Amino acid sequence: MTNPAEELLDVVDEQDVVTGQAYRDVVYRDGLRHRCVFILVRDPQGRVFTHRRTESKVYHPGHYDCFVGGVVGAGETYDEAAVREAEEEMGVSGITPTRLFKFLFDNAADGDQWWCQVYEAAWDGPVSPQVEEVAWHGWLTDDELSAKLAEWPFVPDGLAAYRRYLELPRS
Known about the structure:
With about 170 residues, the protein is α+β, with helices and mostly antiparallel strands. The strands form 3 sheets. A 4-stranded mixed β-sheet has the order 6-3-8-7, with helices on both faces. Strands 5-4-9 form a 3-stranded antiparallel β-sheet. It has helices at about 25-30, 80-90, 140-150, 155-165; strands at about 10, 20-25, 35-40, 50-55, 65, 70, 100-105, 110-120, 135-140. Helices cover about 25% and strands about 35% of the residues. It starts with 7 loop residues before the first strand and ends in a 5-residue tail after the last helix.
């Protein structure tokens, strides 16, 4: 497995146009704007795959998230990264994320800023999450997830994405 700090990322501007490239550790150290993907995965019962990040994660170790995902590699499209990240993080093959919306996450207090492409996907099968990434996982109903949002520490970018997700019109 490649050292995540040595992963090359595209650096982007306020319009999400690539302006250069930098290694992941430099991107985080210097607060450079980059790209991430978030995939909300539901099972056939409509429950949301939720997990706790390992303590070895650089960004908010030990926090919970209701999205799988991560950074978009240099030269990689959002769609390619979404499939790669979902399959890697969940230990599955053949997932098909659907684009929902994109937003600029801006947490000025921490100096964090990145473009977030949010997806939704269905998964009907076993999962085998990456032990380097996921310390715990479960499938939560919307009501259970709502209760846990007030109880557990969630990653700020995932929380921002989920709040926007809840504002989407439902059919």
